[in-house]
Structures are given as C-alpha cells and as structure tokens.
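pasting for ref
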Amino acid sequence: MRGALARFLTLPITQRSAVILKDVLGHSLEETAETMGTTIMAVKAALVRGRKSLLDEARDESVPTSDARRDLERYASLFNARDWDGVRALVGDDCRLDLVAKSQRRGKEVGLYFGNYAKTDVKLRVVRLEGQLALAAHDGNAEVPSYFILLAFEGGKVTTIRDYRYVPYIALEAEIEKA
C-alpha cells in the first residue's frame, strides 16, 4: 500500500488528481474536469502522462523480460484454453486484483474474478504496451485489443492483476507492439 501511495505522490498534482479521480474513484471525464476546474482535453492529457509515469515506475520494478514473457505466455495460454483451475493455480494467495474503475479484491476473492471471464469470448495475447509486457484482451475475433491486463509475478505466481476492462478508452490511446 505504501509503495502505491509513494508512486502517486511522485506525480505532479494535475496528473495525480486526474488518475485518482478517473481510474481510482471511477468519475467520468466530465466529472473529473469539473472537479479539477479544467477541460476534458486537459484531463485526458494528464491521464496519459500520469498513467505513463506509473507504468514506467512499475516497469522499473518488474522482473526480467524473459521471465515476465514466459509467465505471461503461460497465463494467456491457460486463460485462452479456459483452464480456470490452471489459471487460479498461478494466482498467489496474497494476490491483489484491481479491476480499474470497478472494484478491488485480494487473496481468495481473486479466484471469483475468473467466473466472469468464463462467460465471455475474450482471448489474451502478450504484447508490448508502451515498452512493458502486458496482455491485450481481444473480444471475439477482433484484431484490435479492447483493453489490457497488467500482471506482476513473483516466483512464478501472480501477485497483482490490473485489469482495464472497464476503462476501454485506454486501448484507443495505447502504443502497442507485438511482443
């Protein structure tokens, strides 16, 4: 918790406010702009910069690329095969789930999260999202990702899931490359 708070505190106040109001508290762009006393375009710019800074900091703390790629590919493979028991086995006991702009879960409650995906036709692919390995979520057979999921691993177990399913506009602004 302190690490996350410390990351937010490194952001300039405008970026910090935009990210917290929009992504953490779930306010609309209009509500965020009104609360901050600025324009929607200024909020969007602050969101892009703030998210990029947070991603850059998370990347600096991440495991080496080869391990991260292997772990992400294993997760995506199990997910795409709909092997929910296999996916749950990868999730650590103290895993934190952040379903951005929707809810947060921790520990055993994270396992319930996969029940929603069992009802959908979502496929995951490993991509490089603004320089960081991530999972692109594709609805059905769509070529363009609908949203992204960021995972953190420790010792081969998922410690953090950050799912942007309810923040799809991020996919519109994202710079991705095939991993």
